[in-house]
Design a protein that fits this description.
KRAB domain-containing protein; KRAB; mainly alpha; KRAB_dom_sf; Krueppel_C2H2_ZnF
Length: 72
Amino acid sequence: MMFRDVSVNFSQEEWECLDSGQMNLYKEVMLENFSNLVSVGLSSSKPAVISLLEQGKEPWMIDRELTRGLCS
């Protein structure tokens, strides 16, 4: 099992349709899923979406962050 098997990705448009409660639930569940995978040894690297969530950024910013890294 990998993180992508238990994760959900939103586009910017989809994210903007969520209310604050749904956004908070998403963040909590994604962070908990990753933590659970780490605790049983099924994840060795941190997915970009987890790094963004930990920084308080929106999850749809993954493409922007990856592109910025490639173009630097």
